[in-house]
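Page 47, continued from p. 46.
Same chain as before, 588 aa.
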Amino acid sequence: MEKLLELLSEELKQAFEDAGYDKNLGKATISNRPDLCEFQCNGAMAGAKQLKTAPLLIAQKVAEILTKNPIFSEVVAVAPGFLNLKLDEGHLKAYLEQMTKEDKFGVKEPKQKKTIMIDYGGPNVAKPLHIGHLRSAIIGESIKRIARYQGHQVIGDVHLGDWGQPMGLVINELKLRKPDLIYFDDTYQGEYPQDAPFSITELEDIYPTASKKSKEDSEFKEKAMEATFRLQNGDRGYRALWKHILDVSVTDLKTIYDKLNVEFDLWKGESDVDHKLADMVAYMKENGYARISEGALVVDVKEETDTKEIPPCMILKSDGAALYNTTDLATIMERMEVYQPDTMIYVVDKRQDLYFEQVFRCAKKTKLIGENTTLKFLGFGTMNGKDGKPFKTRDGGVMRLETLLKETNEEMYRKITTNRAMEEEEAVQTAKIVALAAIKYGDLSNQAAKDYIFDIDRFTSFEGDTGPYLLYTIVRIKSILNKYVEQGGNLDNVSLKEAGSASEKNLMLEISKFNSMIETAYEETAPHKVCAFLYDMANAFNTFYHDTKILSEEDKDKQAGYIALLLLTKNLLETCIDLLGFSAPDRM
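Result:
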């Protein structure tokens, strides 16, 4: 269905045309003075410049025509030339009724459905997820859900770091700790064990130990590089060990991502395109895209319009070794071959902006992507502590993501059990649900590119612009609806009525913005737009709730109208929190 602003704009265009002016001057916008009106039109201001006429005269002439239009309950021309508009309550009710009947509340299916790949998550195997992985996971998950809701085919890929030097470090350290493992016996010809010779706990100790050694011990580093070479060149034992590393790590990663309510369609990694590297390099050489620079193979990506230095994109190092650039480009090539995406979105730390600029330009220049394929870098800011510096543990280390979830769960449990009596199991489960909302909403309500302060006290508050406040609002609506049914009401037999108060109309107006918001959130890859809509809706509902006797209303017809409005409000709120990747409990 048409967005409300589009419908109002059509009426305005007709009025401007009927008044003898350019119809394109008729555009409705949300009022920036809600104390005066609900919508406004500034077309007379632009028309005055074209026609060299006083804008107020234009506005008055158009207003005279619009006052006869039943869609508006009030039209006022005010100096210097604004049109202030209020929507007729009957038309607003009819619009919301249509929303309730339409699939996805009237969100239009796209004229051309796109295939969109979202590259987000980006963890390295053999390493635990830490808070630096939080933003990529939850921003990417929300963007995926929004794009799907808009009607596109969306594929989410975790893109594991599973093939480079870290693997050689782990294997070499493992060899020092357990030299008798058959994986290190070059004469062994049998089948390797199904079970890994290490646990996730051991693995998470091995990598940081090996990483530290490589910086202090040149011999250890050299042997790790040799291990990486043997792995990437097909050594049986090393490949089997690597498979164990991958299996143990991915099992643990899936457990943590599941707690975050983050799901990936693909669990591919750098290793999945290793077999493509040689052909891709040969293609770039043969077609004259790549050249040798100081022994390395590079592709020039600088453009004449650049105002800053853009270095060449390195494809191979001087020793012939591949880089992240190489595997990222090969991944783009494979995605085009297998999925033919119209768009690829990379949700990554904004500090990697230059790197992705080089990779994207290289992919375009070397024609790894089609002319109409879009590569988009969505860079996110840093999650900081209250001191404004990157978030750390109390002892100054990088906090594990699992620890962050645990501490937030505990704080939420404390608040929930302090406020009300609840069975232990229900309290624990409710705390998990609300804690996840606190973390996700606290992050997603910020524009992705901006840094933000992670404040557990504020994020877990039941007041203000927070996840718990939104969930409490949904739970309050659920409670009212349940009581209505307990009192003999039937939710299937309720229908919307015209607004009878300012707060009721304001809630209905907020609801009417839903399909415009979804479109904007999709087009701008902006989950914070969903958050802003949610908060405005929750505030509008709570004002209406405090102004209105709902369950004690004696006029049953009027009460049924209230309940229908609450039902629509709840459904929209729950739809929106699902787009953000969390849910609401039944009680709080």
